[in-house]
Design goal:
heterotrimer, A mainly alpha, B mainly alpha, C alpha+beta, A: 12 helices, 0% strand, globular, C: Alpha-Beta Plaits, 3-stranded antiparallel sheet, flat
Chain lengths: 322, 213, 205
C-alpha cells in the first residue's frame, strides 16, 4: 500500500515537472529572446509581464480545429505527436535531482542507455509526422530529421560513454555520486560535444534545418494544427529540459556545489539546468541556421573526432590514476 | 534434475510471467503484421512495435542493459535508417501492390526453419533455468559486462572484426562510387585509427546484445 | 593574424548578451502614447479657408484619393461701375485614407497652403467607407497640426511676414513723415497761423 502511494506520488511529481518546466522555459525564451533583440516580449497575458502567455497559447491551441489532410495516413498522422512527446516524459523519470532515493523518479541500472535510447525514439515521432502528412515539405523535414539523428546520435553516445568510463558506472545517480570537481576540465570536451549534439537532436537553432521555415515551412509539422501541433512544441521544450538536466547530471556534477550540498543539492541541479536552458535560448537568438550539409560536416568531421579524443583522454587518465 | 523439481510450475503463473506472455503475443503479432502488411512504412513502424516488445521482454528477464541497448540500436538507429531509406526511395501512403515478391512460400519456409532452430537452441540451452526475481538481478550491466569480457571474449572480438570488415567494406564501396569526386566528408573520418576506435565502441553495444542472444 | 576558431561565435554571443542588458526600444503604444516627431505623416488636414479649388492636389494624387466638388459664384462689383468677379466655392473636399499612400504630394503641390500633415494617426475604422474623411473632418484635423518649425537663425523672412512688416514699416514711415510735417507746420504757424486738419488720415482711408 505504502509502495503504491510512493509510486503514484513520484509519477505525479514527474508529471507535474513535465507539464510546468517546459512552459517555464518557453516563457523564459519569450522574454530572453525579446530582450536580446531589444524588445519587451509578451506583456499582457496574466497581467504581470505576460507571465501567462503560454497558458493563453495553450487555450488557443485547444480551441483550434484539428485538421487531418485528406491524403494523409490518418492513424500514423494522429499518433505521431504522442510518439514525439512521451519519450521525454519517460526520460524525466530517470534524471536524479538530488542525492538519495527520494530525489529521482526511478533508479535505473543502465540509466545512460535508457535516456539516450528513449530520446532517440522521440525522433521517430517527427519521422512519422513527416511521412504521414502527404506533403513534400513534411517529407523533406522528416528526411532531414532522420539524417540529423543519424549524424548526432553517435557523438552524443560517445561523449556519454566517456563520462560513464570515468565514473565506472552507467547509472545516472552513480555517475553523479562519483563526480569530482576536477572532472569538469577533464570532461569539458565531452560536455560540449554532448550538449551540441543534444541541441542538434532536439532540432534547436542553430541546428533546426528540419523545421527551417524559410525553406520547408515547418518541416514535419507543417500540416499539424491545434492541440497536436502544441504537443510537438511541448516535446521540443520538454526536450530542452531533458537535455539540460542530462548535461547537468552527466558533466556538471548534478547536486554537487561549492556549498550546501547536503540539504540544497536539488537546488544546485535546478540552477545548473536553468543556466544551461538559458544557454540554449542564447544560442538560438545569436546564431543563424546551419545548412544541411554544413550540419553533417560539423558532426562527422568535428564532433565525432572530438568525442573519440575525449574517450581516449578519459581512458588514459583513468588508467594513470588507478 | 533437482532444479526442475524445485522450480515453480506452469499452473500458477506469477504476474511477471503473465505479462511476459502477453508482451510476447503482442510482439509476435506485430512481427506478423510487419511481414504481411502491404504498406511499406507501416511495416517499418510495426517493426518498431516488435523490437520494442522484445526490449520489454528483456526487461522482464531482468536484462536491463540489453533492453535499453536494444531500444537504442534497433529502434533508435536501425529503424530510423530504414525509414530514411524508405522515404528517400519510395514510400507511398497506402498500399504498394508491388510489395509482394512471388516467393512467399519459400520465405515462409526459411522463416519457419529459422524460428524452429532458434526455439530449439534456446529451449535446449535454458530448459529449466528460472530467474530468481527476488534476489540480486542477474542481468545488470555489471553481470553482463563481466560475463561478456570473461566468458565470451572470443565471440565478442570476432564480432568486432566482422563489423570492422563491414565498415571498411562500406567505405570502400562508397569511395569507389565517386572516385573522381572529392572525398565525401565522412569518408576520411572513418579511415585510420579513429575509425577503428569508433567501430570498437559501437561493437560494445552491439555484440553485447548478440552475446545475450 | 589568424582569428581563433570560434571567436566569431563568441562575439555574436557577446552582442546578444549586451543587448539583453540594455533598455528595450519597445513602445507600449495603447498604454503610453508614442513620442512622435512633430512632422509625422499621420493624417492630412485641410485648411479650407485657403483652398481655391485649383484642383492641383486632386490631379497630382498618384492614387486618385482626393475628391473635390465646387461651383462658381459671382461676386458683385466692389466699386460701382466695376467688373463682376467670379469665385470658386468648395462644395466637397474628401480624402479616402483607404487609398491614400501618404506620399504627401498633395501637400507639396498645394500653392495656397491649404493642406497640412498632422501627426494624429488613431483614426482606424471598422468600416472601410468611414475612412473617407469629408471636409468637416479634414478641417477638424487642422487643429492638430503643429506650429511650423522655427526658422534657422539668419534665414530669410517668410514672405507673408515680410509683406506685413513692409506695410507696417511703410505706415510707420508715413506717420513719422506726417508728424514731422505737422511739427514743421506748427512751427510755421507759430510764426504765422494755427494748423489745419492732419493729413495722414486721408491717406489711411
Amino acid at each position: 500500500m505504502n509502495d503504491a502511494v510512493d509510486v503514484a506520488l513520484r509519477l505525479l511529481i514527474v508529471f507535474a515537472v513535465f507539464l510546468t518546466f517546459p512552459l517555464i522555459i518557453g516563457q523564459t525564451e519569450h522574454k530572453v529572446m525579446a530582450h536580446m533583440q531589444g524588445r519587451l516580449g509578451p506583456m499582457y497575458a496574466g497581467g504581470f509581464h505576460g507571465w501567462a502567455q503560454l497558458v493563453a497559447d495553450g487555450v488557443k491551441f485547444v480551441q483550434k480545429e484539428d485538421v487531418v489532410p485528406a491524403g494523409a495516413d490518418r492513424r500514423v498522422f494522429q499518433l505521431a505527436p504522442a510518439v514525439a512527446l512521451l519519450p521525454y516524459l519517460l526520460v524525466l523519470l530517470a534524471i536524479p535531482i538530488g542525492p538519495g532515493e527520494g530525489a529521482v523518479g526511478q533508479v535505473l541500472d543502465a540509466g545512460i542507455f535508457f535516456v539516450l535510447a528513449v530520446m532517440g525514439v522521440g525522433v521517430l515521432g517527427s519521422l512519422m509526422a513527416g511521412w504521414a502528412s502527404a506533403n513534400k515539405f513534411s517529407l523533406l523535414g522528416g528526411l532531414r530529421t532522420a539524417a540529423q539523428l543519424l549524424a548526432y546520435e553517435l557523438p552524443m553516445l560517445l561523449a556519454a560513454a566517456s563520462v560513464a568510463m570515468a565514473a565506472g558506472t552507467v547509472s545516472l545517480p552513480g555517475i553523479v555520486h562519483a563526480f569530482q570537481w576536477w572532472w569538469l576540465p577533464w570532461q569539458i570536451v565531452g560536455a560540449i560535444v554532448f550538449f551540441v549534439a543534444g541541441l542538434a537532436e532536439l532540432q534547436r537553432p542553430p541546428f533546426d534545418m528540419p523545421v527551417a521555415d524559410s525553406e520547408i515551412i515547418f518541416g514535419a509539422y507543417t500540416e499539424y494544427t491545434g492541440l497536436r501541433f502544441a504537443l510537438f512544441l511541448l516535446a521540443e521544450y520538454a526536450g530542452i529540459v531533458v537535455l539540460c538536466g542530462l548535461t547537468t547530471v552527466l558533466f556538471l556534477g548534478g547536486w554537487h556545489g561549492p556549498w550546501g550540498a547536503e540539504g540544497l543539492g536539488w537546488l544546485w541541479t535546478l540552477l545548473k539546468t536553468a543556466v544551461l536552458a538559458f544557454v540554449v535560448i542564447w544560442l538560438r537568438v545569436t546564431h543563424p541556421r546551419l545548412r544541411a550539409d554544413q550540419l553533417q560536416k560539423f558532426s562527422w568531421t568535428l564532433l565525432v573526432p572530438l568525442s573519440l579524443a575525449q574517450i581516449a583522454l578519459t581512458g588514459i587518465v583513468k588508467v594513470v590514476i588507478s | 534434475m533437482s532444479i526442475a523439481a524445485a522450480s515453480p510450475g506452469f499452473l500458477s503463473p506469477t504476474g511477471v510471467e503473465i505479462a511476459f506472455l502477453l508482451v510476447g503475443l503482442v510482439t509476435f503479432g506485430a512481427a506478423l503484421v510487419t511481414v504481411t502488411t502491404r504498406q511499406l512504412v507501416h511495416a517499418a513502424l510495426w517493426l518498431v512495435v516488435a523490437l520494442g516488445g522484445l526490449a520489454v521482454e528483456y526487461l522482464l528477464l531482468t536484462a536491463e542493459f540489453i533492453a535499453w541497448v536494444q531500444v537504442l540500436i534497433y529502434v533508435g538507429s536501425v529503424v530510423v535508417l530504414l525509414l530514411f531509406g524508405l522515404m528517400l526511395t519510395k514510400a507511398p501512403i497506402g498500399r504498394s501492390p508491388d510489395a509482394d515478391s512471388g516467393n512467399r512460400w519459400a520465405a515462409l519456409l526459411v522463416a519457419g526453419a529459422a524460428a524452429a532452430a532458434l526455439v530449439w537452441v534456446v529451449v535446449d540451452a535454458f530448459r529449466t533455468t528460472w530467474i530468481d526475481l527476488d534476489g540480486a538481478a542477474v542481468g545488470t550491466t555489471k553481470v553482463t559486462g563481466e560475463s561478456l569480457f570473461q566468458n565470451w571474449v572470443l565471440p565478442f572480438e570476432a564480432l568486432s572484426v566482422l563489423l570492422l570488415a563491414a565498415l571498411v567494406g562500406a567505405i570502400v564501396l562508397s569511395r569507389k562510387a565517386k572516385a573522381d569526386a572529392a572525398a565525401s566528408s565522412r569518408a576520411p573520418q572513418e579511415r585510420g585509427d579513429q575509425g577503428a576506435d569508433r567501430s570498437e565502441d559501437r561493437n560494445t553495444d552491439r555484440s553485447a546484445q548478440e552475446g545475450a542472444r | 593574424m589568424a582569428p581563433i576558431p570560434g571567436s566569431g561565435l563568441a562575439k555574436g554571443l557577446a552582442v546578444t548578451l549586451r543587448t539583453m542588458t540594455k533598455k528595450t526600444v519597445t513602445e507600449q503604444y495603447p498604454d503610453t502614447q508614442p513620442d512622435l516627431p512633430p512632422r509625422t505623416r499621420g493624417v492630412i488636414g485641410l485648411f479650407e479657408e485657403n483652398c481655391t479649388v485649383c484642383m492641383l492636389c486632386a490631379r497630382e494624387c498618384p492614387d486618385w484619393c482626393i475628391y473635390i466638388d465646387s461651383h462658381k459664384e459671382t461676386i458683385p462689383a466692389a466699386t460701382p461701375g466695376g467688373r463682376e468677379r467670379s469665385r470658386n466655392v468648395l462644395d466637397r473636399f474628401a480624402i479616402d485614407f483607404a487609398l491614400c499612400m501618404y506620399c504627401g504630394i498633395c501637400i507639396e503641390v498645394c500653392p495656397f497652403d491649404a493642406l497640412f500633415w498632422s501627426p494624429e494617426f488613431e483614426y482606424a475604422e471598422t468600416d472601410i467607407r468611414d475612412l473617407t474623411h469629408e471636409r468637416d473632418k479634414l478641417r477638424e484635423w487642422m487643429w492638430t497640426v503643429p506650429a511650423p518649425p522655427a526658422l534657422d537663425p539668419g534665414a530669410e523672412e517668410p514672405k507673408e511676414i515680410a509683406a506685413a512688416r513692409k506695410t507696417a514699416e511703410k505706415l510707420a514711415a508715413q506717420q513719422q513723415a506726417a508728424q514731422a510735417a505737422q511739427a514743421e507746420q506748427s512751427k510755421q504757424t507759430e510764426q504765422s497761423e494755427p494748423p489745419k486738419q492732419p493729413e495722414p488720415r486721408e491717406e489711411d482711408a
